[in-house]
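Order emerges. One example.
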Amino acid sequence: MGEKLSCIERIFEKAGRKYILGQNARYDELKNETEGLKRTIEQLTSELNQEKAALRGAQIALAEAYEYMKVRKETNPSLEENIRNNNIRINRFDEMFENLAGRLDMQEVKFKKLSRATEEEAPLTREKAMTPQMMPVDNEYDCVDYFDFENHFRGSREAIKSVQKQYIPYFKGRTNVLDLGCGRGEFLELLKECQINAIGVECYTEFAEYCKMKGLNVAEDDALVYLRNQDKVGGIFAGQLIEHLKFNQIVELCELAYQKLEEGAYIIMETPNPMSLAIYTHAFYMDPSHNKPVHPLTMEYFMHKVGFKDVKILFTESSRYPVEIPELKVGGVENLDAFNKSMKEVSETLFGSQDYAIIGRR
C-alpha cells in the first residue's frame, strides 16, 4: 500500500512540475509580448510627437502668411484691383489653418490616449499569466476610432457652428443648458460665446478630452444616465444623437426631457431626415453606429404625447443636397404645370433637406 501511495505521489509531483514549467513558459511568452507592445507604443508616441511638431511649424507658417496677405491688402493701393483674388486666397488660408489646427488637436488627443494606455498598463504577474482571460467587449463599435472617423466625415467645426447658430435664440437667458452627445463641442462653444451657461455630455473619452482642451465644460457620461440624475435644466440640445439610439431610448429621452426641463424651456433634437432619400445614398450609412433614422412626424407625435407645447419641425436648408430637377419649359405640351409640380415633389423627395430639427417647449 505504501509503495502505491509513493508511486501516486511521484506521478502527481511529475505532473505538477510539468504544469509549472508550462505556465512559466506561457508567462515568459506573455511577458515578451507585453514588452514588444510597450516598444511599439513608445515608437508611436515618438512619431506622433514628430508629426505634432511638424504641424505646429506649418500652423505658424500659415499664420505668418495670413498676416502678410492682410498687410499687403490693407497698405498697397495698387492691389485694389486684386482684392477679390486676395480674399479668395485668404479664405483658403483660413480653411487650411482650421484644418491644420483640427489635425493638431486630434494628434494631441491621440497622444494623451497613448500616454494613458502606457501609464495604466499594469505589469504582468505570474498569477495573471496562469489565469488568462478575455475582457468582454461592451460595444460592437469599440473597434472604431470614432474620434478620427467623425473628424474625417463630419466636416469642419466652423461649418457646423454656422448651421447651429439658428438654435441659439431658444436658449437665450437660460442657465444649466445641456448639450447631449456634444461630440466635438460645436454647439457648446456657441453657447459659451453667447454667455449661456451650459454643460456638454459625451460618452466617448476622446471627444470629452477634445472639448476640455477647447476650454468647454463637459461631463463624460451616457446622455440618458446623466439626464436621469439632474434636477431641473434650462434647455436641452441633442444634435445628431437620436439616430444612434434604440426607439425605447428615444421615447425615454422625450419623457425625461419633459420631466427635467424648467417651465418654458426648450428641447431641440437635430437628426437625419428620412423623408429625403438622399440620406440613404450619402451620409446616413457612412456611420456604422447609426441605428435608423426617425420620421419627423413620429418625433412630433411623441413630443406632443409627453406634453410638449409649440412643437414644430424645422427642415434645415443648409443640409439640402445640391441637386434639383429643373422645370420643363417647352411649348405646346398639355398639363405642363401639373407635370412640373409633380416633378418638384419628386425632386424634394430625392434631394430635400437631409436633416431636420424637432423643437418643443416645456
